[in-house]
Specification:
The chain is α+β, with helices and mostly antiparallel strands. It has 3 helices and 4 strands; from the N terminus they run H-E-E-H-E-E-H. The structure holds zinc ion. Zinc ion binds next to helix 3.
Length: about 100
């Protein structure tokens, strides 16, 4: 009976032994958050954060939108309007310098 009680102790999905963050990165303009362990609640919070990352500017956190390659940046970024304009300006300056150096 004692052995059975020990085996049935609930696992704490939030303890360091049972939950580890493996990697956090930006990919294709959104958050990617990889973990080992945890539970459904942790996965739901991570899913929500990943979805929000496509709706909020990656520079300032204000509402933004996905600016894909066709928006003229050369790669996908999630940005608000002011940061999108600033990024385009920065990129065109950089391209201008690269084209002048020949
Ligand atoms: Zn912004």
């Amino acid at each position: 009976m004692r052995k059975k009680q020990l085996d049935e102790q609930p696992v704490n999905p939030y303890s360091p032994e049972n939950f580890k963050v493996a990697q956090v990165k930006e990919k294709f303009a959104g958050l990617r958050f990889y973990v080992h362990g945890g539970d459904r609640r942790i996965r739901e919070v991570i899913d929500m954060a990943e979805i929000l990352s496509f709706l909020l500017c990656m520079r300032c956190g204000l509402p933004g939108k996905l600016r894909d390659e066709k928006a003229g940046l050369g790669w996908d970024l999630t940005l608000c309007d002011p940061h999108y304009k600033a990024e385009k300006k920065r990129l065109s300056k950089r391209l201008g310098k690269l084209l002048r150096v020949k």
